[in-house]
Amino acid sequence: MTDKHKVEFIDNPNPIRKKVRVEQGADPANLIRRADKQVQKLSGEFEEIFAATIPALGEAMEAVRKSDGADKDALGQVRRMLHDLRGQAGTFGYPLVSQVGDSACKFIDLSDQIGTPETEVLGMHIDALKAISQAKIKGDGGPVGAELRGGLRKVILKYNDRKTA
């Protein structure tokens, strides 16, 4: 057997054990209840974060509109804020916010260019988030949430049909 076929096993240390305190005999159900309480406590903070993000998102989106998509810094800001919202929203019980943010992020990511039609579609996503924030819609939004998701889906389908025509 030559050296190039030699197999070597490497023992990978587990550094997380040094950072995490393990409670001996801890009840998993109790740990889950404690974690759920923390998430509930932080969900109130998410409402404040969401409400504060909407004006900043609107300002960045206005810069994107004015530049007809040429302001890459503003578009990057929009993308980052949407990304942060979609990530946090689902955790704190706002799946509708997460879904709208995810749709907008994917739209940006999959667009070859950002011009007038793309800024219109992206603006509709931002408007949907503004409506969710103003109406303080939680959870999946029920029938209103379904209508918002369906409307955005139709807009994207119409955009895609127009793009391929």
Element-level helix/strand string = HHHHHH
Number of strands: 0
Q: Tell me the structural class.
A: mainly alpha
Helicity range of the residues?
Answer: over 70%
Structural write-up:
74% of the residues lie in helices and 0% in strands. It contains six helices and no strands. It has helices at residues 16-19, 28-66, 72-91, 95-110, 116-135, 142-164. Helix 2 runs antiparallel to helix 3 (72-91) and helix 3 runs antiparallel to helix 4.
What distinguishing features does this structure have?
extended; about 160 residues; mainly alpha; single chain
List the helices and strands and how they pair.
Elements: H1 16-19, H2 28-66, H3 72-91, H4 95-110, H5 116-135, H6 142-164
Helix pairs in contact: 2-3, 2-5, 3-4, 4-5, 4-6, 5-6
Short description:
About 75% of the residues lie in helices and about 0% in strands. It is an all-alpha fold and about 160 residues long.
